[in-house]
Amino acid sequence: MAKKKKNEWLEWMKALLVALGIAFIVRMFLFAPIIVDGPSMLPTLHDRDQMIVNKFSYNFKDPERFDIVVFHADAQKDFIKRVVGLPGEHVAVVDNVLHINGEPVEEEFLPENKQSATFQSVKNDFTLEELPGNHEVIPEGYVLVLGDNRGNSTDSRMIGLIDMDQIVGKASLIYWPFDRIQFVGE
Fold it and tell me: If you placed Cys at 81, which of 51, 132, 145, 148 could pair as Cys (CB 3.0 to 4.6 Å)?
C-alpha cells in the first residue's frame, strides 16, 4: 500500500513539473500578461486594463500600421503604444491629421471630435524631422509609435523612434475587467 501511495505521489509530481514547464515556456516565448499603466492609450485602452501580449507574432512578420505594441522603454519599464510610422516612411501630424509620405491617413480609433478641448490641450502637430534623431524617413528596423491620447502620452515625439528589437510583442486581448473583454487591434 505504501509503494502504491509513493507511485501516485511521484505521478502527481511529474504532472505538476510538466505543467510548470509548459507554463514557463508559454510565458517566456509565446504570451505574457501586461497591465496598462496610465491614460496614454485612451479611449482604446483604459488605465489598469489587463491584457495578453502575443510575443511570437513578430518572429514571422514585421509590425503593421496601427498595431498596438508593447516595447521596452528602458530597463525597468515597458510602454504600450500604437505603431503609426513604418520603415521608409515620412510621418507628420498637421492640424491633428496624420500624414504618411504627405498623404492624410484616417485614424478611426481616435475620438471623433479631435477638435475638443481635451484633444487640443497639447499641441499634437509635428514632423519626423522635429523628433529625436532628426530623421527624414524612418530607418529600416525602426517604427514610430504614438499613444491614442496624444495630449497625454510619452511616445516617439519625446523618446524617438523605437528599434524593432525593443518590441516585446503585439497587444492582442483585454481579459480584465470582464466588461471590457475584447480583442484589440484586429
Answer: 145
Active site (annotated) includes residue 40 = yes
- Supply the DSSP string of 13-68, one letter for each residue: HHHHHHHHHHHHHIIIIIEEEEE--SSTTTTTS-TT-EEEEESSGGGTS---TT-E
Question: How many Å apart are CA 83 and CA 77, to the nearest integer?
Answer: 18
Name residue, grid cell 510538466: 18
Instruction: Note if 81 is an active site residue.
Output: yes
Residues 6+ apart with CB under 8 A from 38: 47, 152
List CB contacts of 122: < 8 A, sequence separation 6 or more.
150, 151, 152
Catalytic residue among 55, 57, 77, 81: 81
Q: Catalytic residue among 40, 153, 156, 170, which?
A: 40
Kindly report, residue by residue over 64-89, the tens digit of the pLDDT. Answer: 999 999 999 888 889 999 999 999 99
176 phi and psi angles, rounded to 5 deg: -150, 135
Model's pTM, two decimal places? 0.81
Q: Which residue has 489598469 as its cell numbers?
A: 48
Contact 160, 180 (CB under 8 A): no
Q: Which fold has domain 31-183?
A: Umud Fragment, subunit A (2.10.109)
Q: pLDDT per residue over 115-163, tens digit each? A: 444 444 556 889 999 999 889 999 999 999 999 998 889 999 999 999 9
